[in-house]
Design a protein that fits this description.
Blueprint (H helix, E strand, L loop, with lengths): L1 E2 L7 H7 L2 E3 L9 H8 L4 E2 L7 E3 L4 H5 L14 H5 L6 E5 L8 H9 L4 E11 L5 E9 L11 H6 L3 E6 L2 E7 H14 L8
Parallel strand pairs: 2-6
Antiparallel strand pairs: 1-4, 3-4, 5-9, 6-7, 8-9
Helix pairs in contact: 5-7
Length: 197
């Protein structure tokens, strides 16, 4: 399973600029690995205008189902929310940091007061089978810089994250459920800890 976001930059700005999106040909803006998976003939793709996820394998359908029925990109009904609830769910970062870890948005949606701006968009999304869905999406904050690496030390100390190098790339493996638990604890102490100072 991999993010295949259809936008770069601010999701809220993006949602202001589109009315509909066709997931059959909307390329992944999250890199060549995600685009390669998206293009596999057996790949499925969740129904979402900005944060669709592509997946292959026996649990792909289950993990992607319902992304269009929530109202947020990374909430409980999203593939991101679902992976953080799996006992053995893992997040693999290849050559990137937690700055690119969408599951941090899952924690923000659950535990912070600043992520949603009170604006909701309804966008038309064409699924891989040609079906068309109206998908409701809450807008995220704009112009607020976040620091998703601020808790890396605690993630290493608790065994939530392990890293190694392959060539020049840092590869990090994160226990998704442990990540959400750690973020819940840290955000209960300081709900603004993920914001740039």
């Amino acid at each position: 399973m991999t993010p295949t976001n259809t936008f770069e930059g601010s999701v809220t700005v993006f949602l202001h600029t589109i009315d509909n999106i066709d997931l059959r040909n909307a390329v992944s803006r999250t890199g060549i690995i995600s685009e390669t998976l998206r293009l596999r003939k057996e790949a499925l793709r969740s129904i979402h205008p900005s944060h669709p996820v592509a997946a292959v394998g026996k649990r792909a359908k289950e993990l992607l189902a319902g992304h269009n029925s929530g109202d947020s990109p990374a909430g409980v009904e999203s593939p991101y929310g679902k992976v953080t609830q799996l006992d053995n769910g893992k997040i693999l970062l290849m050559g990137v940091t937690n700055r690119n870890n969408t599951c941090f948005h899952t924690a923000e949606e659950y535990y912070t007061p600043y992520i949603f701006i009170g604006e909701t968009f309804v966008k038309s999304v064409t699924a891989l089978d040609g079906s068309v869905y109206d998908v409701k999406v809450k807008g995220y904050c704009t112009g607020i810089r976040r620091n998703f690496t601020v808790l890396d030390g605690k993630m290493y100390d608790t065994g939530t994250m392990k890293s190694c190098k392959i060539g020049n790339a840092v590869i990090s493996l994160i226990k998704a459920k442990d990540l959400l638990n750690l973020l819940r604890l840290e955000l209960s102490k300081d709900p603004y800890i993920l914001l740039e100072k």
